[in-house]
Amino acid sequence: MKCARRRRVPRTPWQQDWWRPAVAVPSPNHGPRPAGAVPTLVVLHSISLPPGRYGGEAVERLFTNRLDPRAHPSFAALEGLEVSAHFVIRRGGTVQQYVGVERRAWHAGRSSWRGRDNCNDYSVGLELEGLEGRCFSASQYRVLARLLPQLAQRWTTLREVVGHEHVAPGRKRDPGPGFDWRRLARRLRGSGLKVWPEP
Questions:
Q1: Of 127, 129, 132, 165, which residue is the catalytic one?
Q2: Is residue 80 scored above 70 in pLDDT?
Q3: Is 127 designated active site?
Q4: What is the value of pTM for the model shown?
Q5: How far apart are CA 8 and CA 2, in angstroms?
């Protein structure tokens, strides 16, 4: 007697609004999106603490409100700051997720895109471990090419990928001239996401 084979059910890369491949590090720095608001925009940032130093736990501590402002002179200006992106991509390609995508993470601050203010309301914030003006790693581009299309498949309202410098010009400069927008655009062909500035 032959036994029926179990049909394999494809495993979604998402557990609700958390990306399974990411390391979950829940942050308290988020809130509900306004009624009717859906994510239409991905905002790319860069971060390193102290500036230009990679690795360590300072970014994680900042996004979970545990950063000691006395641990480094540059941390003093961050005291009391409540901020977090949805995702952080480390130099080696490890991804941390701090806020579920359905929630409004506090990452963009005072911002506007295409005449619409308060980008936090309708965006996904993604931090790249790095420093504006410097290059990013091949591993980070590979992870972006994997994560961004999966975001767009799960949230079909997502349309564009921009930098923090584009939604807060004059106030912010990240990810900066070291980020290769052409390279990202090539990797995202066919994903339905439009990269700005357009190559």
A1: 127
A2: yes
A3: yes
A4: 0.94
A5: 18
